[in-house]
Design brief:
Layout (H helix, E strand, L loop, with lengths): L1 E3 L4 E4 L3 E3 L2 H8 L5 H5 L3 H9 L7 E4 L3 E4 L4 H10 L9 E4 L12 H16 L2 E3 L6 H8 L6 E4 L12 E4 L2 H8 L4 E4 L3 E7 L8 H12 L9 E5 L8 H9 L8 E4 L3 H9 L14 E4 L1 E6 L6 E3 L7 E3 H6 L1 H15 L11 E2 L2 E2 L3 E5 H4 L2 H11 L10 E5 L3 H9 L2 H7 L3 E2 L5 H4 L10 E5 L19 E5 L1 H9 L24 H6 L1 E2 L28 E10 L4 E2 H4 L12 H5 L10 H16 L6 H12 L9 E9 L2 E3 L5 H8 L2 E6 L5 H9 L3 E4 L11 E4 L2 H7 L4 E6 L5 E6 L6 H9 L2 H7 L2
Parallel strand pairs: 5-6, 5-8, 6-7, 8-9, 11-12, 11-15, 12-13, 20-21, 20-23, 21-22, 23-24, 26-28, 27-29, 28-30, 30-31
Antiparallel strand pairs: 1-15, 2-3, 2-14, 4-10, 7-25, 16-17, 16-24, 18-19, 26-32, 32-33, 33-34
Helix pairs in contact: 4-7, 8-9, 14-16, 14-18, 26-27, 27-28
Length: 756
């Protein structure tokens, strides 16, 4: 049972949920105001310890450490270098777990890795070589600590189960920390995630996590808030179970997470050789929360998230009992969203069962030691079969892999026909084990967004991915691909003890923290390029709508595809050619036209006849126009853009293509909106986007003044091809003072150049 409270709640003594303040007094013998109780959350205490503003309503945070992987760190370091950075002012972990196949683009992926190693030497960073660990496994094992805060350039930066508030953000926010600035944010609300009971045998962390996503994603219950895990059920969950639930909180669109710590948490730090990093964290005797998600763990069933979102959940038994209807619904909804080849999932129901061709247990969510041991218990003595079905297992770190080999679980998996793979995040973002066209893959990974498995509908390729727990994936493998809930098998789970060998990292990881070598030369590969110059915002703005997306939500993977395009992340111009390529293939060509118009304008070559006609229509409508001081740019509209990855390239690629703004009814995540701001694109909000369409121009007079003043609402004008001009209202939402100036200056790099 999962129940969402429609009011705020008080948590008394860490266990009792109370909605009436009078009952709080009756239970405690004291009167506590709501504001005082709100200061009793774990989140409040950690945020207060890291806040430098002196105002807990408007936070200015500095973090204890940061982390990035090889899709993001080059751009971040390049941004920070251009902004005046001379050394890393805090521990910065650079992992190599995304662009590690090195099969696309020749040497460019490994060139990035060598750049990172040279940067770790020069600036004093921590370099984790290729395939040693995925980003979050390494940070759990070595960097998380009770009461700390960690900032990462991967959206799944979540270490709340270890008492660490961690946030995934775009690279611009990490660059700010590297030049000594702060992360500015209005203090978020806090939602209690109250756990009671204990999971049944065969139920794993993904069953719990997907059930939570299904309950809170669509209604925005925890959007941009902190999920604070409390309640007596926590003690019934092993640490790796907690870690694997916690990392999936990203898929709810929450801002961060934090859990009560206990003796099991202490045990985790002790096993990993860091007992000093443990301390007890719990709410005050009375803590107020803005809402509560009540979860009875004993009621959670084996669960599957069907294409194409982690919140699209069913119990496996529900799917089996209604397979024809559910698969038809999934197929119809998916094919409304996909552009190009169509999904065929209805055909997966035959011979009285749902059949899949592929299973993946991988990454920060699936590749934990406990998950893999449970899968080995299920498959021991069984066979995956020699048919179409295949199973791949990706451990999260080399220490975990070493222990799986030592205790025999690796052998059990291999003997059953599973393939044991390297520490690699590829199956999570479409760069590893891409299924064949038309296949159905089940994965204990974090996402099943469109094309996240690596297929290319625009080129006639389409596969489908559902998310499941490692236990049910192993149960399905034991049945040769027949979809099976782990709770349907009688399995003795051995839960072996974990022995951690830190010497594996000590021998290979370069730790240069506090030991920068300023004279060390950065190693540049031929694909590593500087950011192009970004123009400052002019007084007025004229943009052409080069993509108009009416889907309810637009993911960052649709804004900039993952997969093999990741190899070009260090080359802004080349990567920008892929912007929206799988969602709107004509976007790039349309934007290039506008970018060239602006370049010609700045070079004094005059305006095109099309733009002259737009200005004439605006003048005819009674508006004052100043073409000499008006940016020409492109823009996109999407109802709710930015769900998913923290990758700044979702915004920066548009900017490199000449975009000056985004228009949206709302932004899916704070991090995507921040990415737009940090790359100098004004994040407009519009209530009635029907007033403009693809190919229309939008004129925003006085935009620079409006942004700098953070005016609540101001006018914009849509210009149709026939010259019709329609006024409509826009806003930017609340902007901090630095955010306003960043937009006005044209991007974060320009801002730091002018404010050193």
């Amino acid at each position: 049972m999962i129940n969402l409270y429609d009011t705020g709640i008080y948590l008394v003594n860490g266990e009792h949920i109370v909605t009436d303040p009078a009952e709080v007094t009756a239970r405690t013998g004291k009167t506590v105001s709501r504001d005082e109780a709100a200061r009793g959350t774990m989140a409040y205490g950690i945020l207060k310890a890291h806040n430098h503003s002196g105002d807990m309503d408007n936070l200015q945070l500095k973090f204890d450490s940061m982390t990035s992987h090889d899709i993001t760190y080059v751009g971040i370091i390049q941004t920070a270098r251009a902004s005046g950075m001379t050394e890393f002012p805090l521990p910065y972990v650079l992992t190599n777990c995304h662009n590690s196949l090195c099969a696309v683009g020749g040497t460019i992926n490994e060139d990035d890795h060598k750049f990172a190693l040279s940067a770790a030497h020069k600036y004093g960073g921590i370099y984790v070589p290729t395939n040693m660990a995925n980003i979050h496994s390494y940070n759990r094992e070595t960097m998380a600590g009770c009461g700390r805060m960690i900032l990462g350039s991967d959206s799944h930066t979540r270490y709340g189960a270890l008492g660490t508030m961690a946030i995934g953000e775009g690279g611009g926010e990490l660059a700010k920390q590297l030049v000594g600035r702060t992360y500015d944010f209005t203090r978020p609300g806090v939602i209690a995630i109250y756990l009671t009971g204990a999971p049944k045998a065969g139920i794993g962390p993904h069953d719990v996590a997907l059930s939570i996503c299904g309950a809170v994603y669509k209604n925005g219950y925890v959007k941009n808030k902190v999920m604070e895990f409390v309640g007596p059920g926590i003690q019934n969950l092993p640490m790796e179970f907690r870690n694997a639930v916690d990392v999936m909180t990203t898929e709810t669109t929450c801002w961060s997470s934090i859990w009560v710590t206990d003796e099991k948490t202490r045990g985790y730090f002790t096993v990993h050789g860091r007992p000093e990093d443990y301390k007890e964290i719990k709410p005050a005797d009375v803590a107020y929360y803005d809402g509560c998600v009540y979860i009875d763990l004993s009621t959670i069933e084996s669960t599957i998230a069907m294409p194409m979102h982690p919140s699209n959940t069913y119990t496996i038994h529900e799917l089996q009992e209604n397979a024809a209807d559910i698969l038809h619904l999934i197929q119809e909804n998916a094919n409304k969203q996909i552009k190009g080849a169509k999904m065929d999932i209805v055909s997966k129901f035959h011979d009285g069962a749902v059949w899949v061709e592929q299973g993946e247990i991988a990454g920060c969510a699936g590749g934990t030691f406990d998950n893999i041991c449970a899968a080995a218990d299920i498959l021991r003595g069984r066979s995956c079969g020699n048919g179409a079905f295949s199973l791949s297992v990706y451990p999260g770190s080399m220490p975990a892999l070493a222990e799986l080999m030592r205790n025999g679980r690796a052998h059990d998996l291999i003997a059953a026909g599973a393939i044991l793979r390297e520490c690699f995040c590829g199956p999570c973002f479409g760069a590893g084990d891409t299924p064949a066209n038309g296949e159905f893959s089940i994965r204990h990974t974090t996402r099943n967004f469109p094309n996240r498995e690596g297929s290319k509908p625009g080129e006639g390729q389409m596969a489908a991915v559902a998310l499941m727990d490692a236990r049910s994936i192993a149960a399905t493998a034991a049945n040769g691909g027949r979809l099976t809930a782990a709770t349907d098998l009688d399995v003795e789970y051995t839960n072996p003890e974990y022995h951690y060998d830190n010497g594996i990292y000590e021998k290979r990881v370069y730790n240069g923290w506090t030991k920068p070598e300023p004279d060390h030369e950065l190693k540049f590969g031929p694909n590593i390029k500087d950011w192009p110059e970004m123009p400052a915002l002019t007084e007025d703005l004229l943009v052409k709508v080069c993509s108009y997306i009416t889907d309810p939500v637009t993911t960052t993977d649709e804004l900039i595809p993952s997969g093999e395009t990741s190899s070009y992340r260090s080359n802004p111009e080349r990567l920008s050619e892929f912007a929206l390529s799988r969602r709107d293939p004509q976007y790039v060509s349309r934007s290039k036209v506008m970018r060239q118009m602006e370049r010609d304008r700045r070079a004094g070559k005059g305006l095109t006849e099309e733009v002259k006609a737009v200005y004439a229509a605006l003048a005819k409508a009674g508006l004052t126009v100043d073409p000499e001081n008006t940016d020409l740019g492109s823009t996109i509209f999407a109802n709710m853009p930015g769900d998913g990855s923290a990758r700044e390239q979702a915004a920066s690629c548009q900017r490199v293509m000449g975009a000056s703004a985004n228009f949206a009814k709302q932004y899916a995540t704070k991090r995507y909106r921040s990415n737009c701001i940090n790359w100098g694109m004004t994040p407009f909000l519009v209530e009635n986007p029907e007033v403009f369409d693809l190919g229309d121009y939008i004129f925003v007079p006085g935009v620079r003044a409006h942004v700098l003043a953070n005016d609540a609402v101001f006018d914009a004008y849509a210009v149709k091809p026939d010259g019709t001009v329609t006024r409509f209202a826009v806003s930017t939402g609340y902007l901090t003072e630095p955010e306003r100036q960043i937009i006005a200056d044209g991007c974060l790099i320009n801002y730091y150049r002018s404010n050193q």
